[in-house]
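User: I'm preparing a small set of examples for a lab meeting where we compare how different chains pack in three dimensions. I only have the primary sequence for this one, and I'd like the structure in token form so I can line it up with the others. Please keep the answer compact; I'll paste it straight into my notes.
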Amino acid sequence: MHRLLKKLFPEHRIELNYGTPWELMVAVQLSAQCTDKRVNEVTAKLFKKYPTLDSYVRAKRAVFERDIHACGFFRNKTKNILGAAKIIGAKYHGEIPDTMKELLLLPGVARKTANVILANLHNKSEGIAVDTHIRRFAIRFDLSDHTDPVRIERDLMEVVPKKDWWDFHHRLVLYGRYVCPARKHDCREHPLTLIYPTAATKWPRSK
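Assistant: Understood. Below is the structure token output for the 207-residue chain.
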């Protein structure tokens, strides 16, 4: 599967726009249950209004909620982002932690977010970020029998070589966005389905 994905997407990069490590943290948290396109629209203004980590530390919650309202779940995202800003400023002197253990202690950071941060900022692969695209394909292609992201990640880590963890994640995300989207459709002629036809008949159940 990954060999084919590599041919389809030889070059790849995260599609969230950011200029600093902290901005990546913000963008990834905003991307939960939201498209990268929408996040980029919001952060185009947000990053100008809040140019430094300290500006997030000083931000008013009610105002920030309005600033990110379009990304959905704005109350929880505001609480987590502003809370993480305070911790990173006070405990890590403005630097984003470079270990899974430390990242998971930050508000709003689960393994998916931590994996994205580690791969993009620190060139580390400690797992496979499982978002909605990865979950969908893991189930359809019988790579996992689970629906829980943590269990899916464990299953994928057993079948995908560690050196390919981040590349596999990102290429499969691109495949889900640009080749085989989530809405039900006929995908029998899609590249991955041609090598595993059973996938054309399977659609994952809701969480």
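A couple of notes for your slides: The chain has a mean pLDDT of 93. The chain has twelve helices and no strands.

User: Perfect, thanks.
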